[in-house]
Specification:
The complex is a heterodimer of chains A (431) and B (297). With 431 residues, chain A is α/β, with parallel strands linked by helices. Chain A has 20 helices and 16 strands. Classes of the chains: A alpha/beta (431), B mainly alpha (297). At the A-B interface, helix 4, helix 18 and helix 20 of A face helix 2 and helix 12 of B.
Chain lengths: 431, 297
């Protein structure tokens, strides 16, 4: 009898011990959406999170990037959103407008792990709409110059210039060296990123009047656009779309072009795809600025982690966000995925300081600016291409193209003007 | 038949059609009606978040569309596809059907399957192969042109050639289906008619012109309407091959609608485009039926 009693007591103790931890979330399933390769590479981190939080099961759903935006929107409409999700940081304003994501200020205020000054400022700000954060940067993505050091050296340049004037002179020299059918730089005519980056550098805000009208005819943007168009006009860049380039790496290897502006994933790709003989003949550099390096801004891209408003497990969801934001997890995630950490602190790890190709990204990240935080921004970017491509191909004039663009943007932002005028833009979402 | 019996029979009939009616109502009538109502509003991303900011705009979506260059450009692109793509597709499928029907042809079933294969192949796979074929630097087509000392063409990169390239690819992909319908039509023509024609001294061309073509008239109408309705809905080919580029030269009406609706989430505009497209298709079908009737008379 005594034995039985002891056994019962022991069992109770175990139960009580497990129970009084109070941290046990028995049978809770946290639904986490991750896009593309991250859905796969995050798994080991998730396993550790589950070990730290017994009883919690994190269900990672892998969503392909190409379908992610539509799928997320559909889920918002159908009210079947996950608890936590990775979100391209340019999408944040849209999901704020949809009232789908949780405002995170209260969580940040009481967090020991997450604060604005622990992240790159420009990246953090991509998650801020109307002064409040709605997402926490997970990994970052920005654009730098990739270039062939051997070609530049032959053209008389030991390093990449850091201002537009010298950069342009360098491109002219490279073009002269390489000859016809070769170019100094690849700027696919169907990509809006590069010309918009130039605008960021000349100090254009793209939009004006409380982000309700376009500012593409402003002198700042005009300066950037003229620089961009002149690169095609002077034969420094080929006026072709990226679909014509069937193999970027092959062409880079052949020296069809000596530079291109792209993101961190291409460090891995170039290492993998360029032949061994070229491995010491390419590197990266922060973008040159119109008036020197300080103005060499780049885009503040990347992915954020958001908590959905409909989630019944917000506390736990935030816990996962905090876990993934820890400096050591950020470094670990870099090793698993090649995604660059969003925390400044993680960049002190030798992984990033040792390799100058990655260090260039670290430098660039201190000079990033977010685009306009309005949900219409992606449509404006697409409309920019509709107007800019004919100019690049020489069938439209810059003045009329930019004036038309401003008219288009005014039309696209009509609803936003109406919402602001009637005070219907949620307090959090007003600029 | 007693009235009571008729009533009972009617009731049974309703019982049988009810499941179909319910399904049609829920998955067709309700969405179409909702779409029609949405087309008079500015339902957009803000309205999804907060329905109270939706405005009723009357016919403004329609008038804005009818005044927009972009829309008429998409209509032109679609019409080019309907007219030229449709004609080419019907001609190709009739040609293939006649070849298969010819007495001298052996292994008919094998060829029929081969011709039908592209139709059942995933478009994405087909698009990848055709993008290689069309590639200006490494593609088979331009390599052939170069070997013949002809100038190379940037098929998908040149705004003038992108649409013809898409027409050729989609004809290759889709002609198998119409071909089968034509084969069925040809099988329905009694041999006696050809025999009589031959006795009257008709050669192969005269037989084709005065026996085959008239006998195929109903098939033509069917194939014509089907192809037209299908071609008006041009979407996947440019979506996969060119995303509407270069210079928006391959933006069809449905692609424009998709962009408005599911990329920019302007559902008011998108539904207005949908109903305008419906009107165009209605007119197109009406013209075809008039032409078919005029031929019958």
């Amino acid at each position: 009898m005594r034995r039985v009693l002891a056994a019962v007591l022991a069992t109770c103790a175990v139960v009580a011990f497990g129970g009084c931890g109070a941290k046990r979330h028995d049978g809770v399933t946290l639904r986490f959406w991750a896009m593309g390769a991250e859905g796969e590479t995050v798994q080991p981190l998730i396993a550790d999170f589950e070990r730290e939080n017994p009883g919690v099961h994190v269900e990672v759903q892998q969503i392909p990037w190409s379908a992610a935006h539509e799928k997320l929107l559909t889920c918002v409409v159908g009210r079947s959103t996950p608890d936590v999700s990775q979100l391209g940081n340019t999408w944040v304003p849209e999901f704020v407008a949809l009232k789908a994501v949780e405002p995170l200020q209260p969580y940040v205020d009481s967090s020991a792990v997450i604060a604005r000054d622990k992240f790159f400022g420009g990246i953090w700000d991509t998650n801020v709409v109307g002064g409040a954060p709605y997402g926490i940067p997970w990994y970052v993505d920005t654009r730098v110059l990739f270039y062939r050091t051997d070609i530049l050296r032959r053209a008389g340049y030991a390093t990449m210039p850091d201002n537009w004037r010298d950069w342009r002179a360098c491109m002219v020299a490279v073009k002269k060296l390489l000859g016809p059918k070769h170019y100094a730089i690849l700027l696919p005519s169907n990509e809006f990123e590069q010309p918009l980056l130039f605008g960021l550098q000349t100090g254009s805000a793209y939009l004006t009047e409380g982000e309700t009208r376009g500012a593409f005819t402003s002198p700042e943007f005009r300066r950037a656009f003229d620089f961009y168009v002149s690169l095609y006009r002077d034969g420094l860049a080929p006026g072709i779309s990226d679909q014509v380039i069937s193999n970027l790496y092959q062409e880079f290897e052949k020296g069809t072009f000596a530079m291109f502006i792209t993101g961190p994933w291409n460090i891995g790709e170039c290492t993998k795809r360029l032949p061994a003989s070229l491995q010491n003949a390419w590197t990266t550099a922060p973008l040159p600025g119109p008036d020197g390096p300080a103005s060499g801004f780049s885009s503040a891209g990347g992915s954020s982690l958001v908590v959905f408003r409909n989630s019944p497990h917000k506390e736990l969801a935030w816990k996962l966000v905090e876990f993934l934001s820890r400096p050591e997890q950020q470094v670990r995630f870099y090793h698993l995925s090649g995604d660059l950490p969003a925390r400044v602190e993680s960049w002190r790890d030798t992984t990033f300081t040792r390799d100058p190709r990655i260090a260039a990204f670290g430098t660039q990240l201190t000079r990033v600016k977010p685009g306009p935080q309005v949900p219409e921004w992606s449509q404006i970017q697409a409309q920019f291409l509709v107007r800019s491509e004919p100019v690049v191909r020489g069938v439209a004039r810059p003045d009329s193209a930019l004036a038309q663009l401003d008219a288009d943007v005014a039309r696209i932002l009509e609803k936003r003007r109406w919402l602001l005028a009637h005070g219907k833009l949620a307090a959090g979402a007003a600029q | 038949m007693t009235p009571a019996y008729a009533r009972r029979e009617a009731r049974t009939a309703w019982l049988f059609v009810t499941p179909a009616l319910v399904l049609l109502g829920v998955f067709f009538a309700v969405p179409v009606l909702t779409g029609f109502l949405l087309s008079f509003t500015d339902y957009d991303i803000y309205a999804i978040g907060d329905p109270s900011v939706m405005r009723v705009v009357g016919l403004r979506n329609y008038t804005a569309m009818l005044e927009s260059k972009e829309f008429w450009h998409a209509v032109r692109v679609t019409m080019i596809y309907v007219v030229f793509g449709g004609a080419l597709s019907v001609a190709a499928s009739l040609g293939a059907a006649l070849l298969l029907h010819a007495k001298a042809v052996r292994l008919r079933g094998v060829f029929r399957s081969i011709f039908f294969t592209p139709y059942v192949t995933t478009l994405v796979a087909v698009a990848i192969v055709w993008r290689y074929l069309y590639h200006p630097e490494y593609g088979l087509i331009d390599a052939t042109l170069a070997a013949l000392h002809l100038p190379k063409i940037d098929w998908l990169g040149d705004p003038h050639w992108a649409m013809p390239s898409i027409i050729v690819m989609s004809t290759w992909k889709n002609f198998g289906y119409n071909m089968l319908i034509f084969v069925a039509g040809l099988l329905n023509i009694p041999d006696e008619q050809y025999e009589a024609a031959r006795l009257d001294g008709a050669g192969p061309w005269a037989q084709f012109r005065y026996v085959t073509l008239p006998a195929l008239a109903p098939t033509f109408f069917f194939v014509g309407v089907l192809t037209m309705v299908g071609n008006f809905q041009l979407f996947s080919e440019p979506y996969v091959m060119t995303q509407g580029g270069p210079l928006r030269s391959t933006v069809s009406v449905v692609l424009l609608m998709y962009e408005e609706g599911f990329r920019w989430w302007r559902l008011g505009n998108a539904t207005a485009i949908a109903f305008l497209l419906f009107a165009f298709m209605l007119v197109g079908t009406w013209i075809q039926s008039r032409v078919a009737k005029a031929q019958d008379a």
